[in-house]
Design brief:
Elements lengths: L12 H18 L15 E4 L5 E4 L9 H32 L7 H23 L8 H26 L5 H27 L7
Antiparallel strand pairs: 1-2
Helix pairs in contact: 2-3, 2-5, 3-4, 4-5
Length: 202
């Protein structure tokens, strides 16, 4: 009578099945497509036109934790504030250059540059007025509107002072009012972010 050298031949089936599963998994993973090094992630940056034809890019705004309306509101405020602060720098530069002794910016250059500041500031004020205000931010919006409207009015006064017969007192006072309004707008943007629960910078 022949003796079976392995009384339990079925015990090899399970290891063979497991080995086959491992091999299948290995080859399946190898066939998966790799991430392309050329693939890009969509960016939420925004490009803003500046005086003189230059542009600046604004990074994505703060995340308020899932409210897209508030996120969009804060992002637009950041864009407007960036543009306003650049216009403020332009206003001060033109004013100081025109007042310098010897004069660094002649009237023929100062006037069109101040016209641009006046026009662009009014456009920003119109943009603030047309914003969609999330519920609960009405008081913040009123403060923002007041600040940007003050800047627009000051820009017009500075231009009128430059173009008129005034020796410069009206223009200089208007430039100071413009910088104050720009500061106030920047502060109100920060206050609005605080109201939205966004941590302050620093």
């Amino acid at each position: 009578m022949a003796v079976n050298p392995d009384p339990k031949p079925g015990r090899w089936i399970l290891p063979l099945v497991v080995l086959g599963m491992i091999a299948f998994t290995y080859f399946f993973i190898k066939e998966l497509p790799e991430a392309s090094p050329d693939s890009t992630i969509a960016s939420n940056t925004t490009t803003t036109a500046l005086p003189g034809g230059e542009t600046t890019t604004t990074a994505p705004g703060p995340d308020t934790g899932g409210d897209p309306v508030v996120d969009a509101y804060l992002l637009e405020l950041d864009e407007i504030n960036t543009a306003l602060q650049l216009l403020r720098t332009e206003m001060v530069t033109v004013n100081d250059g025109f007042d310098a002794d010897p004069r660094e910016i002649e009237y023929s250059e100062a006037e069109p540059r101040m016209i641009t500041v006046d026009t662009d500031t009014q456009a920003l004020a119109d943009r603030v007025a047309a914003m969609t205000v999330p519920p609960g931010f009405e008081t913040n919006q009123q403060a923002l509107t007041s600040a940007i409207d003050s800047a627009a009015a000051a820009a017009s006064e500075a231009l009128e002072g430059l173009q008129g017969s005034d020796p410069g007192d009206i223009r200089r006072a208007a430039v100071i009012a413009y910088t104050t309004a720009a500061d106030n707008f920047d502060t109100e943007v920060a206050n609005t972010k605080t109201a939205a629960g966004v941590p302050s910078d620093g």
